[in-house]
Design goal:
The structure is a single chain. This protein is an alpha/beta fold. 39% of the residues lie in helices and 14% in strands. Strands 2, 3, 4, 5, 6, 7, 8 and 9 form an eight-stranded mixed β-sheet that branches. The termini are far apart.
């Protein structure tokens, strides 16, 4: 009995001794270290606008409406990277691409007269037309700062047609005056133009609105200016007017189809102005402005659709 009581007392003492002993510190080496959360650094981005090209169509004096289109694009800060022109579109395009300033192009366009461009010669008809085009070349030589297309502020192309092959040719190098002359050489009106042993006439015969040329130059958005044909109820009286009216009827339909290759087509309301009426230039420019402003939502939408977001380098 005493032995049992003594054993119980020893066990109780041992239990109390163990429960009062100090607890060893935890082994921190076994505790996982929290991993800090990594916040990615945002990459700075910027918008890259598409390169915009202009395709300027033909239309005689009505083509001065294209100056109004250019004026609006400049006012709205829509930069032009390429200019392709056919017939009078090549003339207006050259005046603009020379310095890249609409004011310069407008000044020369306002001051030009029919006599500056058309040198009618009675015997020139035996060479294929009534107008030799010497005055046109002289006008360009006098009023352009650049002599070659490569020197121009904005890349430029004048579209003409090779008579032998029937194919459109875009002059993007070489002397400006012969290229624009060839592009403006209306069949039956101007004497065909020889360049490098080849004979050329007005590009409007096959490509009145050269949207495809502007695209091939590198334009990602193409704005075309399509000049409507003359809406007249009377038959032209002189041979030059008959020839020109015949060509414009043909080229207007071709131009309407070719203009579809552009992202935006601007058509100024100038169909009631004769091809050789140089007295209404201010009205034509205003009509071009009005048409361009109506097209601004389409132009902005086309540019926005092709604007890219890229990292800032």
């Amino acid at each position: 009995m005493r032995l049992a009581a003594r054993s119980a007392a020893i066990a109780l003492a041992a239990l109390l001794l163990f429960s009062c002993s100090p607890v060893p510190p935890p082994d921190l080496s076994l505790v996982p270290t929290p991993v800090p959360t990594t916040v990615p650094t945002p990459v700075p981005m910027r918008d890259v606008s598409p390169k915009v090209g202009l395709a300027l169509g033909g239309g005689g004096a009505r083509g001065f409406a294209e100056i109004g289109v250019l004026r609006v694009l400049e006012q709205e800060k829509i930069p032009i990277s390429f200019v392709a022109g056919t017939s009078v579109g090549s003339l207006v395009g050259a005046l603009y691409a020379d310095t890249g300033r609409v004011l310069d192009a407008e000044f020369h366009a306002i001051s030009v007269t029919e006599e500056d461009l058309f040198d009618y010669r009675a015997f020139a008809v035996f060479s294929g037309g009534f107008v030799r085009g010497e005055r046109l070349r002289r006008f360009l030589g006098t009023n352009l700062k650049s002599r070659s297309i490569e020197q121009m502020k904005i890349p430029f192309a004048a579209v003409a047609v090779d008579v032998a092959t029937g194919r459109a040719v875009s002059f993007q190098r070489g002397s400006i005056a012969p290229a624009v002359h060839a592009s403006c050489a209306i069949p039956g009106v101007f004497v065909p133009v020889e360049i490098g042993g080849r004979t050329y006439v007005d590009g409007g015969v096959v490509n009145p609105v050269p949207a495809d040329v502007a695209r091939s130059m590198g334009a990602e958005v193409v704005i075309a200016v399509s000049i409507p044909p003359l809406t007249r109820s009377t038959v032209p009286a002189n041979p030059v007017a008959v020839a020109y009216q015949s060509v414009t009827i043909m080229s207007a339909e071709i131009g309407r189809l070719r203009a579809r290759e552009a992202d935006v087509v601007i058509t100024p309301d100038v169909g009631d102005v004769a091809y050789d009426d140089f007295t209404q230039k201010k009205r034509l420019i205003t009509a071009g402005e009005d048409a361009a402003r109506k097209a601004l939502p389409q132009i902005r939408a086309a540019i926005a659709a092709r604007t890219r977001r890229v990292p800032v380098s």
